[in-house]
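[Discussion] Sanity-checking designs against the backbone

I'm trying to build intuition for which residues belong where. Below is a structure token string of 453 positions. I'd appreciate it if someone posts a full sequence so I can compare it with mine line by line.
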């Protein structure tokens, strides 16, 4: 039923929050004689209204943002009649981001180009806030999708909030319970969550974390992690069996795949990790360590100084996503402090030793497929040695199903966005959400029970 102009105006002003583009819609719809989409009520739109697509901004800036957003961009792109997407790259990363975009054959519609060599977190945050503010002024959106815990996610969400653009947060609700681990990402994710209206929790555990912080349950949808979709998509698109990177001989050695770049480990802890790798190659003559080193200069300098020119330790530049998945498939074990790699290792049934004291992704450890080993040299050497010398211990950790997703996350996000923006409830029926395998891990337990000492 058509509402009068007066009612329409009052209705528009009563929306909380009032989205600037909503008022534009009201005016536009008045011209067309149809009812505007309010986002809060389900309505039967006229033909003209159907022409008004949902405008979704999708922001990414780092390698993991892009890997995890690519399936969402591709899925939304399957519904051009309903969604108009704006892929926004903050450019927090440059080379490492390009590698991902090329792999998925996606590109940014807008590039904000904020990366500066070794810039501080405050500089990075300021650049993203300012650039997003300008962008959102010029491009009215119905919703901005942010992903994860990077400064891109946090600062873009804040900029959207300042513009009263609704925020939907992909990979919401992961918590370590310590804002300094991972630093600054635990805080970034929580801060993004504060200004988020729709939380896409990847697992039931992440949903519980949000509910424990009093987020209303009808604002949370459990989707599975889009990284599982990303791996599946790449496997469909191309073979992920690549020759080994230049300089790594294909001689049947057991590969220990390493990634370590966390800010909270810079300095002594990263040195400990490197020293543990040296001990492992000395102890096990049949292993080779393959370590694609993050381009952050604070990481490169320590790793080069400690591990450069070591026999059977291969420091390589970041590899493209196909090559990394190929390495994951070929390796024997994984040592990592990366969030994404923790989620990928169980997809390939590879035991993962997590080089952190605490993780916000405890599911694999709860299932016995990963172990939190911290950053002490002796503990890392002991736990890796156990896996390299004890086939039973190895097999135990190499079996099980990935607890992080089922490859349908992007489809769930797309359906939920559509229903949410049309004001429908439930946004996604309970049975349609990702059911997961691990629930009820109290936050304290994540740290105290799992860290191997
Ligand atoms: C950032 C994210 C971290 C994520 C990681 C993924 C924050 C606070 N941190 O790490 O959550 O795990 O990315 O990789 O958002 N650089 C390049 N080329 C690149 C990328 C980086 O030269 O393609 C160099 C630049 O000098 C840049 C520096 O690395 O200033 C640091 O980049 P930054 O995004 O700040 O990295 P991290 O914060 O370490
Ligand atoms: N990755 C990659 N090339 C590399 C190292 C990692 O493509 O040389 C991928 C990896 O598969 C994972 C993601 O990058 O999906 C993890 O990113 P990163 O460790 O930089 O960030 P985090 O996940 O810790 O935030």
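Best answer:
Here's mine. Compare freely.
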């Amino acid at each position: 039923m058509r509402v009068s102009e007066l009612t329409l105006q009052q209705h528009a002003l009563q929306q909380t929050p009032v989205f600037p583009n909503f008022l534009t819609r009201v005016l536009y719809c008045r011209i067309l004689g149809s009812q505007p989409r309010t986002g809060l009520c389900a309505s039967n739109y006229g033909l003209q209204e159907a022409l008004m697509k949902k405008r979704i901004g999708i922001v990414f800036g780092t390698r993991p943002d892009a890997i995890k957003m690519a399936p969402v961009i591709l899925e939304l792109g399957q519904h051009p009649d309903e969604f108009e997407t704006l892929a926004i790259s903050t450019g927090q990363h440059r080379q490492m981001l390009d590698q991902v975009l090329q792999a998925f054959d996606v590109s940014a519609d807008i590039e904000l180009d904020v990366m500066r060599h070794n810039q501080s977190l405050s500089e990075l945050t300021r650049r993203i806030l300012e650039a997003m503010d300008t962008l959102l002024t010029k491009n009215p959106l119905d919703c901005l999708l942010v992903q994860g815990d990077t400064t891109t996610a946090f600062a873009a969400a804040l900029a959207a909030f300042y513009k009263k653009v609704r925020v939907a947060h992909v990979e919401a609700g992961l918590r370590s319970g310590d804002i300094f681990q991972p630093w600054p990402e635990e805080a970034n994710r929580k801060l993004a969550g504060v200004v988020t209206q729709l939380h896409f929790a990847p697992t039931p555990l992440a949903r519980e974390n949000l509910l424990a912080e009093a987020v209303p349950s009808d604002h949370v949808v459990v989707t599975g992690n889009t990284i599982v979709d990303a791996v599946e998509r790449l496997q469909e698109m191309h073979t992920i069996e690549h020759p080994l990177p230049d300089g790594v001989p294909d001689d049947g050695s057991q590969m220990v795949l390493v990634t370590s770049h966390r800010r909270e480990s810079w300095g002594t802890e990263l040195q400990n990790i490197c020293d543990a790798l040296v001990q492992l190659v000395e102890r096990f003559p049949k292993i080779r360590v393959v370590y694609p080193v993050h381009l952050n200069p604070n990481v490169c300098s320590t790793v080069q100084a400690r591990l450069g020119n070591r026999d059977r330790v291969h420091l390589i530049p970041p590899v493209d996503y196909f090559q990394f998945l190929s390495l994951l498939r070929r390796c024997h074990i994984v040592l990592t402090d990366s969030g994404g790699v923790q989620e990928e290792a169980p997809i390939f049934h590879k035991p993962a030793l997590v080089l952190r004291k605490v993780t916000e992704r405890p599911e694999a450890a709860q299932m016995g497929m990963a172990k939190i080993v911290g950053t002490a040299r002796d503990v890392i050497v002991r736990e890796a040695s156990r896996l390299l010398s004890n086939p039973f211990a190895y097999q135990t950790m190499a079996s099980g199903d990935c607890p992080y997703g089922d490859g349908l996350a992007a489809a769930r996000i797309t359906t939920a966005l559509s229903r949410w923006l049309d004001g429908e409830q439930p946004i996604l029926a309970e049975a349609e959400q990702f059911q997961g395998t691990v629930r009820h891990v109290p936050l304290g337990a994540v740290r105290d029970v799992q860290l191997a000492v």
